[in-house]
Amino acid sequence: MKAETIELVQHSWKKVAPIAPQAAAIFYDNLFAADSSAKVLFKGDMTQQGEKLMQMIATAVGKLHNLDVLVPVLQSLAKRHAGYGVVDAQYASVGAALLKTLDTGLGADFTPEVRAAWTEVYGFMARVMIEAPKG
Fold this sequence. Notes:
75% of the residues lie in helices and 0% in strands. By secondary structure, it is mainly alpha-helical. Helix 4 packs across helix 6. The protein starts with a helix and ends with a helix.
């Protein structure tokens, strides 16, 4: 992953962090609109779930310069998600919902370059999670 890609993602995430609760709500609205089957995977308080989501994204974005640390975190997360019933195909819905959320949250700052950087980073993370041992 190029340093420029990481910088674009990290810089844009700093703009989303102050609106994290709203971004989380927008994300789940986008996800459930795109993939209604995902809704049954969430049984708890969605506000708390949104906080966890934003914390996880912040952690992942913060570790992009240190993939030796990030990859095991993502693999562990994938194992937990598999236990909740997440299937590989749902990673595409999550990615689309994330990009749509970033577009809404960042507005004009969601430039084609920022979109491409997030697409690359999410694609990497999704691949790590899909390929992670689930057993």
